Amino acid sequence: MPNILICDDEKDIVNALKIYLSNPDYVLFEASNGREALDIINEHEIHLILLDIMMPVMDGMTAMAKIREASNVPIIVLTAKSEDSDVILGLNVGADDYITKPFNPLEVTARVNSQLRRYLSFGGGAVSPGDFRSGGIELNDRTKEVTLDGEPVFLTPKEYEILKLLISNPDRVFSPKEIYTAVWKGKPFGTDNTVAVHIRHLREKLEINPADPRYIIVIFGQGYKMRKI
Fold it and tell me: What is the largest distance, in Å, between two alpha-carbon atoms of the chain?
């Protein structure tokens, strides 16, 4: 039975998340700051953490850095839409995903379930040589298989090649022309629209919310990249 820790200094947010995650299969713990979260983690086996950034006593970034010294438990950062810098810093420090306030209940449960499936199935294990992983996406280039949180994802050959290009070069931005040349092996003609259509299809298959992608990101005026998670 998964143990989930909710850490936020705003009681209303904690209560809302407890309602969204009310499930007889979950055991919920709560903390109001990073120090309390660390104490709970030391006393209980925690399988997922929902962690706010701005908190008294000990902030979320400090707590996350300390957690990552000893554990690869999934951490989902709680952040406001205007705090993009916190999201980037959180992912760099060790967060696995993020949820923006105000919360969409369906998105909360989807992201929690996604991270729990991956962690409990794989234990956060290392990727084998020849494989590529970003968050819950794993690409096995030997078998040409792609999975999302352990479930198979069926891609067309071109979708597979685009994903392989992006996931094997995390955080590198590729222009539509670069993607077209690498995947179609020809002169870029009608490049932007062709690539955009394939990126949209990839997002529909790999993203919980394709309109707010976590993995395949557009850098306006430059191209696309796979965010390293």
Answer: 60
Computed over every residue of the chain, the mean pLDDT equals 86
Side-chain half-sphere exposure of 51, counting CA atoms within 13 A: 34
- Among 75, 90, 122, the domain boundary falls at 122
Q: pLDDT by residue (tens digit) across 178-206?
A: 998 888 876 656 667 889 999 999 999 99
Q: What percent of the chain has pLDDT over 70?
A: 91
Pick the closest to residue 164 from 202, 118, 221, 111 (CA basis).
202
Are 70 and 176 in the same domain? no
Indicate whether 62 and 164 sit together in one domain. Answer: no
Averaged pLDDT, 203-225: 90
pTM for the model: 0.62
| pLDDT tens column, 24-58 | 889 999 999 999 999 999 999 999 999 998 899 99
Give Cα 48 distance to the centre of its chain: 13
Rounded-to-integer distance, Cα 129 and Cα 134, Å: 14
Reading phi first (left if > 0) and then psi (alpha if -120 to 50, else beta), residue 171 is in left
Q: How many domains, the chain?
A: 2
